[in-house]
Amino acid sequence: MLQCPDSVCSSVGKGDSLHHQVLSAFPLCPLTEEDLIQNPLFCKLLATLSQHVDRTGLTFQLRKELEKADKELRSQKLCWMHLESLHRLLQEMVQEHRCSQQHSTASAAEDKFYGTLEQCLLVARCARQLDPSSTLSQDQSLILGLSPEKVLNQMPPKQDVWKMKQKLPTELQKHLKKKLFYLLSYYQPEWENESEGLKCVKLSKLPVLIESERNRAESLTAKNRENAILLQRQTHSYLSELLECTQLLQTLVLDLRLKVQKDLDRKKIEYFEDKCEISIQKIRAIMLEVQLDTYTTDKIATHRKITDKLNTKLKALQMEKQALESKLASFEIYGKEFEILAEEYSRLQQEIATKSWALKEFAP
To answer: Which candidate, 47, 41, 44, 51, places its Cα nearest to that of 22?
Structure first.
């Protein structure tokens, strides 16, 4: 298990101060104070690492080397940008001269100057393109058989180049002054109609204004970055609280739903019981109504008379039954012999009946 020395723990702080120190030391890490509280050993490890790394997670030695390399890179980039800017300005001067020739006629000296400048730029560009890089093999075939030395031989005469170089600073200064006036007009359009002297005075203050605007933009960018990190933490905390509230709300809704469902089921049962009782009472009422419609007073009197007659016949038949049963009991006294004679008697009776029927049928 990872452990932190007591000396380190005491040096980096305790409790809430330790958590705040870790969070401020690693602003790019999506950590919360709750994460640090749940993982105290990891919190102590981060507190120890904060003494050896910066806010971006780099060690101090690596940060120094990175700053040194960045400074060298900026120096090289600044040098390249100076040369590239000068080259582009010279190209712009040549292009503007060509465009101005379409609208007005320039002097021969001016045409000679810009022609020499354009030829020097073109030859220098071709020579740079033909110059083999150190990463290429020396036996690489030349383009069209040309070499940088052959291309440099196409430079204008030295006298023309010398005159062009003598005039170039003045023309370059005029061109830069014109571009600066354009920049001043773009930055502050209300200064466009000012005099040239006043524009020059305001141009001297323009770098300070632009630098202050740049610093202000950088400070706003850093503040926006800090606000974004703070917003991310607050969003994480808000989502965590919202999730807990949602879970609590779900629990409450479930409990209330079960309770309400129980009461609703009980009320439904009572409702159906009452509805069933009403239906039974309605059926009974309909049955009574049908009976009242079916059995009138006259029909009831007739039914009573029929019942009396049927009861009288029933009593007579019951008395006859009892008499026959008594006779049968008296016959059973004689036993099996009497039973055989009774059967023979019944058979003879049937034969007599059959022959009587036959005599009636065949009699003329």
So the answer is: 47
Neighbouring C-alpha atoms within 13 Å toward the C-beta of 219: 6
Residue type, 200: C
Q: What is the pLDDT of residue 73?
A: 92
Q: What is the pLDDT of residue 3?
A: 39
Question: Among 89-103, 197-211, 302-316, which stretch is predicted with the lowest mean pLDDT?
Answer: 197-211
Query: What's the mean pLDDT in 333-362?
Result: 76
* Residue 89 Cα distances to 92, 118, 129, 165, angstroms: 5, 12, 20, 15
Q: What is the distance between the alpha carbons of residues 185 and 199, in angstroms, rounded to a whole number?
A: 9
Please list, in sequence order, all residues whose beta carbon lies within 8 angstroms of the beta carbon of residue 361, skipping any fewer than 6 positions away. none
User: Helices in the chain by DSSP H: which ranges?
Assistant: 6-12, 15-25, 33-38, 40-49, 60-101, 108-130, 148-152, 158-187, 196-294, 297-331, 336-362
316 vs 326: CA distance, rounded Å:
15
**How far is 227 from 352, CA to CA, in rounded Å?**
133
Give the single-character DSSP code of 139.
Answer: T
What pLDDT score does 281 carry?
92
- pTM, two decimals, is 0.40
Which residues have CB under 8 Å from 34's CB, separation 6+? 240
Considering Cα of 160, then 80, then 132, then 91, what sign does the dihedral take?
A: negative
